[in-house]
Write a structure and sequence with these properties.
Layout lengths: L4 H29 L5 H41 L1
């Protein structure tokens, strides 16, 4: 049995896309549901906002890296 790197990269990109959808849904839910009533709520709100933002940024970076990897793999397969 051989390892198919192209399929592995595609699987990775699909998993990252799922994580992106989860981050988007969390951000949307956060925007639609969270209510701030006092200073402690405000601090929790800001912490959660930063966590969601950082998650979305990390997923976006992973998507871009996966896309670049797929392009490089495709280019090297055609050249060699």
């Amino acid at each position: 049995m051989t390892f198919d790197i192209a399929n592995a990269v595609d699987d990775l990109r699909q998993l990252i896309a799922k994580a992106d959808a989860l981050a988007y849904a969390a951000a949307k839910l956060f925007d639609d549901v969270i209510r701030v009533e006092d200073a402690e709520d405000r601090r929790s709100f800001e912490r959660l906002a930063h966590l969601i933002g950082a998650t979305a940024s990390a997923v976006q970076a992973a998507l871009e890296a996966g896309d670049k990897l797929a392009v490089e793999l495709s280019t090297h397969r055609r050249d060699g």
